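Our example copied in:
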Amino acid sequence: MSIYQYRPGVHNASSYMASGTPFVTGSDSLSGVMKIEFPRVTKLVTFHIDSAGSNDLYFYFNENATNLNKFHLEKTGSHPSSAQFDVKCKEIYVSGSGLQFRIFASLTGINSEEMFTLTGSGITE
């Protein structure tokens, strides 16, 4: 008889196959940088820019990210813009000026403390 207790983990594929728990946050007037810390590891993140006009949103996975490692979402016209990313992370940095946005994250059952820090090539280099 095995005494191993199976539980969700960062390298456990079934943790990402099950439906996620919803997490929604955002800002009605972001100016500067906002750090979003998730209570559990994400499996999918959707960004939604609500502002009218041409406000752009930048997001990245480490506060030391270079400009080349920041993803740029453009706001085009008067219609809301959105983008979806299949990514596991425990935090995201969002920046913009006078920006109204929402983030929807689908969370796994994995505690955020189990997720490694995202750094290195493509993240901070």
User: Anything to note?
Assistant: The beta strands are 21-37, 40-49, 57-60, 71-73, 81-85, 91-111.
